[in-house]
Design brief:
Layout: E1 13-17, H1 25-32, E2 38-45, E3 52-60, H2 63-73, E4 84-87, H3 93-97, E5 101-105, H4 113-120, E6 126-133, E7 139-147, H5 150-160, E8 164-165, E9 168-169, E10 171-174, H6 178-181, E11 190-196, H7 202-210, E12 215-220, E13 230-236, H8 239-249, E14 253-254, E15 257-258, E16 260-263, H9 267-289, E17 293-297, H10 305-312, E18 318-325, E19 331-339, H11 342-352, E20 356-357, E21 360-361, E22 363-366, H12 370-386, H13 454-480, H14 487-513, H15 526-531, H16 534-552, H17 557-564, H18 569-577, H19 579-597
Helix pairs in contact: 12-19, 13-14, 16-17, 16-18, 18-19
Length: 599
């Protein structure tokens, strides 16, 4: 294959396109690093959803390695999909001018990017080569080849235009932008007609359109027994006649039906037009409802839309109120209330969030789209991951006074215990008391102020005894050196400390023999939660939430619990009562974790 050499491109950066959505930076690094040392890899992603856009940039340290990768790796299958590699064009002017770019049409369906490249590479160095495909991956019958020089493009047009490739006679011409093509792309001869009367006959159909010109072919459906809608197609001899028929018949009446007559479109074109139309409507609706549409959650099953509207109408004009329900008509526990202006909506959020309605505390917030909520969760997770160089859900929840990093069998400080400045202990300034974290490897979250494992008492006793022996040896050496004035005082301290340890050892041994009894968790009510100190409320919820999550996600229960505890307490209580709502939040958290791990 002919490729531009190092003299043409001083940058060692390659564009890698047509990638599968699951291809990550790590996979590309592993593949291309086999060719030569890779400096960096970046998969381009959507700013909102963080989904892959299907292309990436691979930067090598040396141009020679990039050239070798282009020669040997182009059209290589990555995740069962052939990639397309070309030199990265930092200057967009070359693409916009169209210099050296040719258009090839009437290609056979079996011609792919590699076959098109192999066919046209003999005429010069190719910068890019692509066969246009539909959303399903099927060839549309045309493609583009961009040469490094205009001379190579001219040679390809001269030698290939009109030739037969894979059984089809192809047409090769210089590429023209849509602006240069002008209105030629809107010339048509085929006309689509719908909303025809059910009793309309083929003879009436042909007579209706022949008055505008020569009809080369026509076809019309029939209503049949199901009384289906009647439509048809008419093909004229030239575009002027087809345009006259559209202008003359569109919107006219046939009986009680108003005809729809327009240019016939391919399925892909119609789908794209409808997607663009719906996207515009969605954006307009989103702009209209920005700051005025409220999301209301934790609704009782008996609450009606009238009662919900009555509860919110004191804060302003309500334009719409809707409680979402399932197929059986049962409430899903959430709904939406839309106000006339943002000030009214803001006031409603401030007043109604946490307020009791039908015996349940409401969760009220501004409504967000699903992708916006997912982006917010990703940002929260990434922010926690950057704190201290580790992910917050991977940290531990320690008993009050326990030093961080010593939960796994290390010595533990307890309130009222003298803190030793030995080498196996941490200093008081290094301790973290009262911070709540979740350990995904534990069966249950560690309880604040709860009882530690018996092994920790035993290790603590061993460390204390070792330190006492070391201090005894040091005191003996000090006496031999004549340091007498301090001997009596230190000896009294050591003797007092040993007596204190001997008194504690029977108690510790008795504690070791007592098995740990699991504490039954009763249902948590809003009243019980409100009576608890604020710093313990999240833990009370977490202790009940963790086992529920562990039933469906045993390995990720700790991480997911830590993510969900960022939510409001009222919404967390709703998750404890509603398995369906909890499963939805678990699914959202899993999606966030998967997207972060894929980066």
């Amino acid at each position: 294959m002919a490729t531009p050499g190092p003299a043409s491109f001083t940058s060692a950066s390659l564009y890698v396109g047509d990638l599968a959505s699951e291809v990550s930076e790590a996979l590309l690094f592993e593949i291309f690093n086999a060719v030569g040392p890779v400096a960096s890899v970046r998969v381009c992603r959507d700013a909102a959803t963080r989904h892959s856009l299907g292309y990436a940039y691979v930067n090598f340290h040396r141009v020679e390695d990039a050239e070798r990768a282009l020669d040997t790796m182009n059209f290589k299958n990555i995740r069962n999909k052939p990639c397309r590699i070309m030199w990265s064009q930092r200057d967009p002017s070359l693409r916009r001018t169209g210099q050296g770019n040719i258009f090839v049409k009437n290609l056979a369906k079996n011609i792919d990017n590699k076959k098109l490249y192999d066919t046209f590479s003999m005429f010069g160095n190719i910068l890019s080569c692509k066969v246009s495909t539909s959303r399903t991956g099927e060839s549309l019958g045309y493609g583009f080849v961009h040469y490094e020089t205009e001379e190579a493009a001219t040679s390809a047009i001269t030698r290939v235009d009109g030739k037969v490739i894979a059984g089809e006679k192809v047409t090769v011409s210089a590429f023209k932008s849509r602006k240069e093509r002008g209105t030629n792309n809107r010339l048509f001869t085929n006309v689509y007609v719908k909303n025809l009367p059910s009793d309309f006959t083929k003879e009436k159909f042909d007579a209706l359109f022949t008055q505008y010109g020569e009809v080369t072919s026509s076809v019309m459906s029939s209503a049949g027994e199901n009384n289906a809608k009647v439509f048809g197609f008419v093909n004229f001899a030239n575009p002027e006649q087809a345009a006259a028929a559209v202008e003359g018949l569109n919107g006219t009446k046939q009986g009680e039906n108003e005809l729809f007559v327009q240019r016939a479109q391919k399925k892909e074109e119609r789908e794209k037009e409808l997607r663009d139309k719906f996207e515009m409507l969605r954006l307009e609706r989103q702009r209209k409802n920005a700051g005025v549409n409220l999301y209301v959650k934790n609704l009782s099953d008996e609450l009606t839309e009238e009662k919900l509207s009555e509860a919110f109408k004191a804060y302003g004009t309500i334009t719409s109120c809707k409680i979402m329900s399932d197929e059986a008509g049962k409430s899903k526990g959430f709904g939406f209330v839309c106000f006339g202006n943002p000030d009214e909506a803001t006031k409603a959020v401030a007043e109604m969030n946490g307020k009791m309605l039908d015996g349940k505390p409401l969760y009220v917030a501004l409504a967000q789209r699903k992708d916006a909520r997912r982006q917010h969760l990703e940002q929260q997770y990434q922010a926690r991951s950057k704190m201290g160089g580790m992910s917050m859900p991977q940290q531990h929840m320690y008993p009050q006074g326990m030093a961080m990093g010593q939960a796994a069998g290390g010595p533990v400080f307890y309130q009222g215990m003298p803190q030793q400045r030995g080498g196996n202990f941490v200093y008081p300034g290094q301790m973290m008391g009262g911070r709540q974290h979740w350990n995904p490897n534990q069966q249950q979250p560690v309880m604040m102020g709860g009882r530690s494992h018996p092994n920790q008492h035993f290790q603590l006793m061993q460390l204390n005894q070792q330190q006492q022996q070391q201090r005894g040896q040091q005191n003996g050496q000090a006496r031999q050196r004549g340091q007498g004035p301090q001997r009596g005082h230190r000896g009294q301290q050591q003797q007092h400390h040993q007596q204190h340890q001997q008194q504690q050892q029977p108690q510790q041994q008795q504690q070791q023999q007592q098995p740990l009894q699991p504490v039954a968790k009763e249902s948590l009510t809003i009243k019980a939660l409100a009576a608890a100190p604020e710093e313990q409320q999240k833990q009370m919820i977490g202790e009940r939430l963790f086992p529920l999550i562990k039933e469906s996600q045993p390995t990720l229960a700790g991480k997911i619990t830590g993510m969900l505890l960022e939510m409001d307490n009222g919404e967390l209580l709703h998750l404890l009562e509603s398995p369906g709502a909890l499963n939805e939040k678990i699914a959202e958290a899993l999606a966030v974790l998967n997207s972060v791990e894929a980066k």
